[in-house]
Amino acid sequence: MITIIKIGEEVIDLKDIVNKFPINSTEVKILKNLSDSGSIYKYNSFLELKFEIDLRVNIIRAARELAKSGIKFKNYKESTCNLEFWERTRQGGFLLKKDVSPYEAIADIFKNGSKYGTECSTAIIIVYYGALLKMYTKKLFDSVFENIHLYDWHYIDSDLGVATKGISFDTIPGDCKYFKNPEFDPKTPEWRGENTIYLGDVNYYGHGIGIKTADEMIATLNKYRKTPDSPTAFLAKSVTNPNYKHLFKLQ
């Protein structure tokens, strides 16, 4: 297995940069995962690499915080939001109201989660915004994300730049991984799969299921198969991430 981390045209040895992060920290775990993954990761500078690692750490933190926020799992027909900050659309999404701070609106979801209910894909997008609350100043966040529409992947802000790799054999803490339920019960289509954040300690966060291991995620989805003999749910090989390099440049 060949693993390369490049900054510019220079191949970086893990031991040369690992001491720039706290010992035994989540940052070091992420760096080691990147180094052990068998892929080539290219960065224009050490600061760009550090930004990705820091954002991954904050994605994990935001996922744990959202899990504790009281936000409910609801299908789009029954979704709910705090109308002080958001307008609920006909499709069940949440559209930022005019003259409302995007920073404060996203922060409200984590503060008053019990006023919100939505599906798992929207929850992942909320996690990304929540992580960026910890990375950007309020002024920058409000200027970059002034027209937030929380719904599904098709309505995501272009500045998040979320992209899915068709096949990825890497699993890095902070990745969004998908558990697919190939023959879900048509009476509960919301359980066709579960979008999750890999927390880096064998656990995943999935809205509506909580923080579970991969086996526990699969066991939960299997309760919503078409029949007990239907094919089992499984962890897909795809991986989804925000555009770290673009988000770094926006600072």
Descriptive overview:
- A six-stranded antiparallel β-sheet has the order 9-14-10-11-12-13, sandwiched between helices. Strands 2-1-3 form a three-stranded mixed β-sheet. The protein has a three-stranded antiparallel β-sheet with strand order 5-6-8.
- It is built from eight helices and 14 strands.
- It has a domain at 165-239.
- It has helices spanning 14-17, 26-36, 46-68, 102-111, 120-133, 138-144, 214-222, 244-249; strands at residues 4-7, 10-12, 40-43, 72-73, 86-88, 94-96, 117-118, 149-150, 163-165, 176-180, 193-198, 203-206, 210-213, 234-241.
- Helices cover 33% and strands 21% of the residues.
- By secondary structure, the protein is α+β, with helices and mostly antiparallel strands.
- The mean pLDDT is 92.
Pick out its properties.
alpha+beta; 14 strands; 251 residues; globular; three-stranded mixed beta sheet; six-stranded antiparallel beta sheet
